[in-house]
Amino acid sequence: MASKRFGFIAVFLSILSITVFGQKNESIIAGIIQDENGSPLARVNVQLIGTNDGDVTDLNGKFSFKTKRHGKNILRSSLVGYEPKNFTLVLSEKDSLFFKIEISESSIKLGDVVIAGSGFTTGDEPKTLTLHSLDVYTTPGASADILRAIQTFPGVVAIDDGSGLFVRGGDVSETTILLDQATVVHPYKFESPTGGYFGTIPPFLVGGTYFSSGGFSARYGNALSGILAMESMNMPSKLASSIGIGLAAGSLSASIPIIPDVLGMRISGNKSFTDAMFRLNGVRNTFTIPPDGLDGNLSVIWKYSSTAQIKFFNFTSTDRIGVRVDEPSFAGVYESQETNRFHNLQWSDATERWLLKGSISFNQFTTEQELGSLHLKPSDMTYKVRFDAETNLDDDHRFSFGAEGEKMINRYEGTVPQNPSVLDPHGNVYILDEQYNAMRVGVYSEMELKVLRKMSASVGIRSDYYDLSKEGIIDPRVSLRYDITKELHAQASWGIYHQFAEPYLYNSVNGNAGLSAQSARHVTAGTEYATDLFMCRIEMYSKTYSDLVLRSSSMNYVNLGDGIARGVDFFLKYGGFLRTPVSGWISYSYLHSRRLQARDLVENIVYEEAPSSFDITHNLTIVAKVQLIQFLNFGMTLRYATGRPVTPIVGAIQEVGAEYYEPIQGHVNSERLPNFVRLDMSLGYFMPFGESNSATFYVAISNVLNQANPVSYEYSADYSQRHLKTTDYQRSIYFGTMISLGSYGIDN
Q: Which of 62, 324, 336, 629 has the fewest CB atoms in 10 Å of its CB?
């Protein structure tokens, strides 16, 4: 069977080679398109008028295509919001022409980007750039992790040493993460109630991201708080590879243009081995099994025409951990082992009128968790189909629409404690052997239009149906942008967002089949000033919740929760890594929230209004990077945050005939942990050699001040005494190196 597969691949590649390289009479037209400031422009449509021959510029503004149309032709470049430009040319057989084209913004046409509130991008997108993809690697404390880097944005807080995205007072479940239109159902490694320790998707597989902490458009779907949409790398332009080795992990990667501009492949693998790092930093005894993982990635890109391509993205990872846990009702070892598989097939095409995208994805996750009375083997499979289309109706109107269907199969086997606070092996448990199937379908449409000479708007509507709740929802969304000057603009947005409860909450044993969708209404308003090297943004927001799911004494769970989160986010950024001697950013967030929440009194549950469990009143992050001498760079990240709210335990009831106690909660979130302070530093030496090769050596010190940052309060077995639990990860050191061949570690 294997020989047949390899034989098929060989024949397939041969046919492609004949198709591509057998056209001896073709001419090549290539070039780069920039704006008036010399910045590259993506998604510019370049075409020979009267033909289907053309291309769409990539993120670097580059285009290239072949044609048999010889003689006199007109080459046209066009992009919404810019004046079209025509060139007359005369082509002969085997000509190779290169154009450097500059196009100017139009004062009467729709701008290329309508900000839908609170949006930030990374990667190489022109004009909206806030963080370069290289910043993910070079931000101290981010551990080369996309999600940890996003934690330095305003509106996002880190409540522990993990990578969980807590957005504007919401928990991690209120932020949806997408990759190439597909939902990444399990975006974290070493999963926990606060997300996980690392993100699942490695940064070198991602070409750009869009992150929004509120007010996002209808195309991004539904989530109560935020959205992170990632795009994987496109066609590799040249052969490149890298090898990295550090104190706790090793990696290999390669980008292979099998047939230049037609067929390419990206492969990578990563292995974590944290034992040595934890021993060096004196915290090895915390673990019975140090965090250990392995992942492999394969991406195949086939550009089968000048405007269309198919991308097949695959990711598989396994990880395990064993850590000692000391709870009042049980002291023992928590062990977990996870396997995560993600596969996505995406098709895209940019015709003369339409930009089209479609995808089919499959995500499978299995895990086994053990701690006291908790012995759970959950698994799930998620299938998703999605289609998006957009077109320019005229110079002032852009229309887009899309549809998606998602099927989720969740299975639960094992035991879980009836009271989440009681983990004693002899405590009361629910015995689970259940499977839940859920189906969600959604559609949206959106119009971006020019309202006035300097004002543009986006008006969208989204509808979703969830079969477990037998409920359909309709969510309207509106955003406005006013360009005061070319660099300064004001924006505002309003929208309604829904999020359905997890499938297991609809079960008949310890759930409620009558749960409806949870809702949030977002209102944002702010201003932004941005140039090539400088950005300053300030935004105010209000997020109103309703129908949140809460625990109930009589019905297990009910839609009684409501609340509000209000605040201000500030973001200031200057320079770019390796572009300016000094670069970095400052982000600050102020948040005030109130929610109706459940208080467990053992005999019954009552409801109280209190701050959100992730209400961080003040959150400040400062990131600075300095080029000390040529190729030697220093970086630091300083984070300060107000302590998060906690619910104290004011008493306990001993179960009859049992040795454990059930805690009685005090007023919900009536106390706060001490403030959080952390300083991370790094030093890196970037050494280029040969042609497009480099070696990078780095050393990083986390928690330089050796601050014993708070995690939670721990209680004695009878809950009569408590003490503050602090993070195990105090001052620690990490070092490593990466060698890149064929690139400078910045793929394209």
A: 629
